[in-house]
Task: structure prediction
Amino acid sequence: MSKVKVNFPRFGSYNVAVRHIIVNGCGVDYVDSPPITKKTLEIGAKNSPDFVCTPFKYQLGGYIEAIEAGANTLIQVGGACRLNYYGEIHEQILKDLGYDVKFVNMANADFAKPLTFYEEFKKITPNLNIKKITSAVLLAVKMVEAIDKVEDYIRENVGFEKEEGSFDKLHRDFLEDLKEINDKKELNLLTKLYMSKFKKLEVDKPKNPLRVGIVGEYYTIMDEYSNHYMEKELAKKGIVIERWMNVSNSIFHNYVKEIKQSIKHYAKYDMGATSMYTINKALDYAKEGFDGIIHVKSFGCTPEIDTMPVLQRISEDYKIPIIYFSFDTQTSDVGINTRIEAFYDMIMMRKEDKVK
Ligand code: SF4
Result:
């Protein structure tokens, strides 16, 4: 029997935490998908239905590249939209293409019943030790929180770094060292060490910088290749970026009841996926006096399309500019950067007008 080699789709910086679960919790090998490139998207788009949303295509392209890199077991994810069915469709497409791999579909598990995750993990390896997998998952959760804490700090400060690339380099080192973590104590020490290193990086930050909040769809907002490195483009212009949407906030510290209450004047019903979070955070950024809001989504993302009229109302009520970006396989960097440039000029002029 061939050795188990597991792959999980590339997703932000979180694969290091998934790797920990697979290697230390399941005791099997982990195969990272190669970094996402134009080729990944081309492979995914070529083998996907035309009108399916872009995360489907990225994931499919990533699976094929991972299989070619040696993976024989693919983990699939679920979600609060059609993402829940993507696992089955990916599986069918990959089988039709002739790939003989095993599928472990986490859409079959239920957050309200943690044991259902154990049942899914058992499909990776039947000799799964419940104590080992539980402790690996708990540490992975803490790793995700550490990643989010570090990245929040980066978004707030990277736009003002004195030495170009200093934040990026330290971020890469942090993720690399995170791979070696074995327990919570080591994780806390590492996070503390890196936070202090980040705080020591020299920045030249004005007293009242431009602040922009980013809201939108789960995958596109967190995967930098999918959003054409938008946060990096904004940082180059000396903007503080805030993005509430990350795995810690949306999954581990979820507070849906409070959100429903706070957005009740704008949305009565949940429109699915990230829609409530998008509206809630846009409202928060508007109330907190941010200079602008950026909404990102994949082309064809119905829940996020539904939020757009609501965001327009928030924009009118609070006189805050909102720009909308929709990404698909044909989106070009030039188009994105030109629009960011125009948005930046506009929010900068408004800020200067306010100061006069
Ligand atoms: S949230 Fe939108 S883009 Fe993401 S999988 Fe669901 S429908 Fe597609």
Q: What stands out?
A: The CA atoms of residues 69 and 233 lie 31 Å apart. The chain has a mean pLDDT of 94. The first strand starts at residue 5 and ends at 7.
